[in-house]
Amino acid sequence: MVDVMSMSFDDIITESSRLNIGSVILPPGEDFGIKSDDEDVYEDESLECDAGFRSVIVVDNLPVVPQKKFDRLEAVVRRRFSRFGVIKEKGVWMPVEEDTGKTRGYCFIEYNTPQENLQRWLVDEKGRDQFVIRSGSDTEFSTESFVQWSPLGTYLAMVHRQNAAVWGGAFGFNQLMRYVHPQVKLIDFSPGEKYLVTCSSHELSQPCDTHRVVLNIFDVRTGNVMKEFKESADEFAFGETGGFTGVSWPVFRWSGGNEDKYFARLGKNVISVYETKTFNLIDTKSIKVENVMDSCWSPTDSIIALFVPELGGGNQPARVSLFQIPSKVELRQKNLFSVNDCKMHWQSNGEYLVVKVDRYTKTKKNTYTGFELFRIKERDIPIETFELDNKNDKVISFAWEPKGHRFAVIHGDNPRPDVSFYSVKGGKVSKLTTLKQKQANALFWSPGGCFIILAGLKGFNGQLEFYNVDELVTIATAEHFMATNVEWDPTGRYVATSVTSVHEMENGFNIWTLNGKLLYHIPKEHFFQFAWRPRPASLLSPEKEEEILKNLKKYSKKYEREDQDISVLLSEQEREKRKRLKEEWEMWVNEWKSYHEEQMLRDVEASDVEDDKQVEVEETLDVTEEILPDVSVF
Q1: Which of 63-77, 378-392, 553-567, 582-596 has the lowest mean pLDDT?
Q2: Quick check: helix, strand or coil at residue 73?
Q3: Cα distance between residue 371 and residue 388, in whole Å
């Protein structure tokens, strides 16, 4: 295995035990940004040299070879590392031992740019987003089950019989790393893309055996296994099941943000929190929480929420607790009574946590729903309790507005349920509006907020309503018959609906604008998967984004001019295309006319040539009439 490290020169000296700076001999004419101690060195101030190692990586653990094998080793290194970017013409340098003439087991590689460039797709001049589809049996890239984007869109992961692999790169897709795990079935990235979790389940060798589950945590960049878990499936069956053989998936829940500092797993009466610095338990012990049933991290902070159901037939109430990690200090707790079920929903900025609580009535024959709102960023984390107008309504779906202060709820027992919108701004939950009797059973907010799709999937046959929550108006209604999935692109400009192979008919996908205009209808037989490529968070501050939104009309004029120029260009291109096709047609017609005329001329010339033939002619020269005498015969 070849390890790759992007390092400064000081890091090279510190980290690489093989590298002795005193023994490094630089190639003629190259100083790698190291200034000479010679005071007489001539410096031309008109030249600007690239002083530094931003475009240089160190490759260690290379074989030590004699001079006659230099070219072969360099070719192998170039072939492997050119997948990550364009290497300069003389960009591979292997230091050599003076005594033996052999390489020292490491080399320097210099690329054209500092980062060749796993995020090149983000600087598309037209701001186009990418997506991946999986259909039929013919594939551009080989995978044996599904594909999965990493959370920031840097990698595309694929699953094979003996390993998982990630693909990416500046130009097209190249395989960047493989993670050996036989019979891998499930994968999961950490939020910051630093780690990849793989999972497999192995068949029983004896009837009395339990299913064995193997989980590996890999370093995404190096492919090294950082932690391995081998236990029975029962040990991973806590919480909601979403994997196989009863395994709760994902087994490991990662802490909020992109630092990937902590991950947690539920166990029997414990929650185990690991730190990725050592991949050991924090303080070498788990947090003991009797009968803990579910957990979820804040999307932005190292705060984990735990749900514990009732114990002792209701003598000990259910509760939701918030713990700060790594201190394990309980920040807030809420006791809940007569609980049938509980679901926790974090807002994307980690400002709010809503707990949906289904409670039994006094007779224990029915249930009703209430909500507990935790205001995480406020002092002492105040909790507000609220209910629907009709608390007996069944809650079908709940969804927070991304980065916002609003949420939507589908509720009701009728075939056409109601949809209500609420705001938590101003220190109190307030209802904005209720839409009556909608053909909807799923909610899909735009990543930019404001717009939402009320979707009627499965039994509602793909009914779609595009709704503007700022204006509280319906923008458009549409239908994608038999639709099974709805997915917004990461910018909130487009939305894709698809019919997967769970249905035998109507397979394929549609792409719509945010205001419900159909752009593309792409039928695909045996359609399995559609997934937009995620984008990392914006580099702009919230203040700058707000400023841009306020001045959107000023920016829109620029883009309208660009759109007009593109439209004119497309019209010119269309005219040129038509002109070219017409010229090609006329040329083809003239060629056939010429051919036809030549053929006719050859036929005429052939008819003027007569061959010699022997002909017999009969001619009457004279006619004589003679009367014969009557002759009798006796």
Answers
A1: 553-567
A2: helix
A3: 9
| Location of structure tokens 């040539």 | 609
Instruction: Tell me the per-residue pLDDT of 215-248, one tens digit each, with 9 for 90 and over.
Output: 999 999 889 999 999 988 777 766 554 555 567 7
Nearest to 13 by CA among 2, 22, 26, 4: 22
Spatial separation of the C-alpha atoms in residues 446 and 425, rounded to whole Å: 19
Q: In this structure, what are the phi and psi dihedrals at residue 272, rounded to the nearest 5 degrees?
A: -100, 120
Tokens of 335: 């006791």
Closest CA to 318 of 354, 291, 295: 291
Highest mean pLDDT (candidates 50-59, 133-142, 328-337): 328-337
Residue with tokens 């930019």: 448
- Provide the 8-state DSSP code for 312: G
What type of residue sits at position 86? V
State the average pLDDT over residues 384-409: 95
- Which has the higher per-residue pLDDT, 3 or 304? 304
Q: What is the C-alpha to C-alpha distance for residues 490 and 62, in angstroms, rounded to an integer?
A: 41
**Collapsed DSSP state (helix, strand, coil) of residue 151:** coil
Report yes or no: 43 and 35 within 8 Å, Cβ to Cβ: no
3-36+48-111: in CATH 3.30.70: yes
Record the pTM: 0.75
Any residues with CB less than 8 A from the CB of 324 and at least 6 apart, and which?
A: 302, 303, 330, 331
Residues 6+ apart with CB under 8 A from 21: 13
Q: How far is the C-alpha of 570 from the C-alpha of 582, rounded, in Å?
A: 18
Half-sphere exposure of 542 (CA within 13 A, CB side): 3
Q: Are 136 and 525 in contact (CB under 8 A)?
A: yes
In single-letter form, the type of residue at position 330 comes to: E
C-alpha to C-alpha distance for 551 and 541, rounded to whole angstroms: 16
Q: Which of 94-98, 110-114, 264-268, 427-431 has the lowest mean pLDDT?
A: 110-114
pLDDT 10s digits, 183-202: 999 999 999 999 999 999 87
At 381 the three-state DSSP class reads coil
Angle at the Cα of 465 from the Cα atoms of 464 and 469, rounded to 5 degrees? 145
Q: Using the Cα atoms of residue 163, residue 166, residue 172 and residue 174 in order, give the sign of their dihedral.
A: negative
Average model confidence (pLDDT) across the chain: 85
The residues near 415 (Cβ < 8 Å, ≥ 6 apart) are: none
225 burial (CB, 10 Å; 0-12 / 13-18 / 19+) is: middle
* Cα gap 283→327, rounded to integer Å: 9
DSSP-assigned beta bridge partners for residue 253? 264
Number of CB atoms found within 10 A of residue 3's CB: 13
